[in-house]
Write a structure and sequence with these properties.
By secondary structure, the chain is of the alpha/beta class. The chain is built from 17 helices and 13 strands. It has two domains: 17-165 and 347-365, Rossmann fold; 168-343, Glycogen Phosphorylase B (Rossmann fold, 3-Layer(aba) Sandwich). The protein has helices at residues 27-37, 66-73, 76-79, 93-100, 114-117, 126-134, 143-153, 208-216, 228-233, 247-254, 272-276, 280-287, 298-305, 322-326, 330-343, 346-349, 351-365; strands spanning 17-24, 42-49, 59-62, 84-88, 106-110, 137-140, 159-161, 185-189, 221-225, 240-242, 259-263, 292-295, 310-312.
Length: 367
């Protein structure tokens, strides 16, 4: 599953002690922490919300407001023990306060950017600009997002791209060749309630009509929706809709499904957020053994194309009844998924982040 010894060490030759900083520790942060702890790294977290996986950190610091956050980061009895401060956005003000509190070196883990989300409006927040100015390195979720951010912010410090791989612990979810009987399509993620408001935020998540269409085409659809208003709104067209579910339980549930839906309200490819980025759910579908139906996520489709694990649609009308239209492709796609899930683990690729840490520390020591 990849190298087990730490690639980046402190001046004593010991694995690094790292502070994760996040408003909410999303699963991307947890995946990284789990992979690096297996190699001896020490991890604490400073966060505003207790969430799945935060109990696995060595130590947890909680902040209720910005003043508490700043007080923790200006306490040198706390911050002096860390080799790296790894900040997960959004929001970007977290990294900026850490920088102004004297926390260095700082790694900016760029999950989302306003400059990408509002690309067509030419909008960039001051917090985003300041964060790139302050960060000693930046970690991105895709090559196109990296290129756009580096060009916009004239960023000349170390960068890397790390996808949202699952941890290899989940390989035990099923054994290829001894797989269970699978049925239906599964969608996991956020989903906006129906709205006629043209200013609805995250319009690419306005999926009501897409999901209804999947069911109307005769498909069995299961939805793990991460927001309660979406859970309530998607109940009326025949899908099996589950309330916000703990990650482990969701992964176990998805193993019972046959296909994974990676679809967005982006048929015209006008949403830069989904055009340029990659998604956690893509790697979770693969780990759960589900060939993927992709629509409206061209960069994620490109990244996965060489593994042969997906059907790519240009519009939802192309989907049809999956078993009737695409069922003949399933055996080959499923075999490819069974192979790819072993290759696409965070443990196999975490060296990308380790090398970034190593470069950051080398730069800091040379000053």
């Amino acid at each position: 599953m990849g190298r087990r010894e730490a690639l980046a060490t402190n001046k004593k030759g010991e694995p690094l002690r790292i502070l994760h900083i996040a408003q909410h520790c999303c699963i991307r942060a947890i995946k990284q922490m789990r992979a690096l702890k297996k190699k001896g790294y020490k991890f604490d977290v400073l966060t505003h919300k207790l969430a799945y996986g935060t109990d696995e950190y060595d130590k947890l610091f909680y902040f209720h407001n910005k003043d508490q956050f700043r007080n923790i980061l200006t306490d040198k009895t706390i911050t002096s023990q860390y080799d790296i401060f790894h900040c997960h956005n959004e929001p970007d003000w977290l990294l900026n306060v850490a920088y102004n509190s004297g926390c260095k070196p700082l790694v900016h883990d760029v999950h989302d950017l306003d400059s990408i989300r509002f690309l067509h409006d030419n909008m960039t927040s001051l917090d985003e600009i300041r964060a790139f100015h302050a960060a000693d390195a930046a970690l991105f979720v895709s090559e196109p997002v990296k290129r756009a951010a580096v060009e916009l912010h004239k960023y000349d410090k170390p960068t890397a791209v790390l996808y949202h791989y699952c941890n290899d612990d989940f390989l035990k979810l099923y054994t290829p060749g001894e797989d269970n009987i699978r049925t239906g399509i599964v969608y996991e993620g956020g989903a906006n309630p129906p709205s006629d408001d043209p200013y609805t935020p995250f319009k690419y998540r306005s999926l009501y009509h897409h999901m209804r269409h999947i069911v109307e085409m005769g498909n069995e659809l299961h939805m793990y929706i991460g927001n309660m208003d979406g859970f309530e709104a998607y109940q009326d067209f025949g899908a099996f809709v589950y309330p916000p579910t703990m990650y482990d339980e969701m992964m176990q549930g998805m193993v019972q499904r046959k296909w994974g839906a990676l679809v967005f309200n982006n048929e015209e490819l006008t949403e830069a957020q989904t055009n340029l980025t990659t998604m956690n759910k893509a790697y979770e579908y693969i780990m759960a053994g589900c060939p993927i139906i992709i629509m409206g996520a061209p960069e994620q489709a490109r990244v996965l194309r060489k593994y042969g694990v997906a059907i790519e649609l240009e519009k939802m009308a192309d989907l049809g009844n999956v078993e009737q239209k695409w069922g003949h492709l399933y055996p080959e796609l499923k075999a490819n998924v069974d192979r790819a899930r072993v290759l696409l683990t965070m443990e196999r690729h975490i060296y990308v982040l380790e090398k970034l840490y190593k470069k950051v520390l080398e730069n800091a020591r040379s000053k």
